[in-house]
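Supplementary Data S3. Sequence and structure tokens for construct A.
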Amino acid sequence: MNLPNAISLVRIILVPVIIVLMLINWSQALVINNYHLTIAWLIAGVLFIVASLSDFLDGYLARRLNKVTTFGKFFDAIADKFLTSAVLIVMSYVGIVPIWITLVLILRDFLMDALRQILATKNVVLAANWYGKWKTAFQMIGLTILFFVSYQSFNGNASGMGRYDQYGLINQLLLIPMYIATLLSLYSAIVYLAMNYKYLITKSSVTKK
């Protein structure tokens, strides 16, 4: 296993650690005036940052060391989706990320995976576009922010519209990167489909034996 793939493996190993830290009932917390953050979420947030940065590091090293392989691209994509999907699901479970955002982001990834598989049967590679890359960047930034600051950090009301409540101004500002990521995910999916529509309506080039 080369170095870039090893980094992707470490990212996958970090995922269950992050999830366990997010779910355990650890009462110790960092408290500053009205703000509080449990130590477990603090550690989970730091590990998420490490895992997110490793996503960029393994790609950079693969290109720099000329270690780009088909397996490496697949492994990196799996590690990336495993990390973001797991964190999104848990954040929706605890009420930090709106469920509809999680559904849009995860279902969009499923759609892209299905499109990639269909195009593969036609010997076509689904090339990444900048909208998809920006979507990933905003998603990582948005999730990182929410690890450390959310309406729950200020004991906000889950259904209230006060300044520190879920539907209040502060929390809506904190969710802006996630809103942008969601819009970019939808737009990039439309771009992918439009660019590859001609291949979708043609017969597969792979013949059954």
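Construct B, processed identically:
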Amino acid sequence: MFDPAMFSLAGRRAVVTGGGRGLGRAVAEALGRMGAEVCLAGRNHAALDEAVTALGNAGVTARALVLDVRDTAGAPAALATLDAEWPIDILVNNAGIENVRASLDVDAALWDSILDTNLKGGFFCAQAVARCMSARGAGGAIVNLCSLTSYVGVPTAVAYGSSKAGLLGMTRALASEWASLGIRVNAIAPGYFRTEMTEIFYDDEAWVARMLDRIPQRRFGRVEDVGGAVAFLCSDAAAYVTGQCIAIDGGYLASI
């Protein structure tokens, strides 16, 4: 029998990397409004504290954890320490960076910085949390932030697209492997959202007009558009959903 309570996240604890701003902060708020306690993880202590205060004012129980996902020793250790006192039920791998550059000009430093954050960091955070969940004999949910570039090629975004395509592959592989541990691994693929990281694109009026013409809903995404899908994937309503990626793109992928 269908029970609306399956959508509730009451009593669960969720870590959102890159949770101090943009999509990560919106996801954290959505999870909190569905009943979860949330931990915003990231590098910028001031941004995290500001976000925790704002979420608290909105009635969301939130805390901050300073870590750098690129630190493949320090970040997992920080998550394990957190789990020992605050058992983690949900991880949202949102931390990510982009640097627009023509492919012929991409150097090893740029490649490593993007892949180390978006893909390598995401894996080792997921691994750390899965180890904790497994040691406690508990299941859980992991949601990775993929992208339209997980599916399509975008000029000047070769490193970013490679990281996000890899993240989609990682999502499917971990879902297959960790199902026996009761851990579900899914992803969302946000389309074109105007955030601090993507602001550079929206300064180009011709680009804006061209992209709006390609999006069936004829608008760009708003940060609040992502929270519902993530909350669903983390809830018992998605108990039989794993290894999937939901595109939140106004119909862009469906129309090409």
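The first strand starts at residue 13 and ends at 17. The mean pLDDT is 96.
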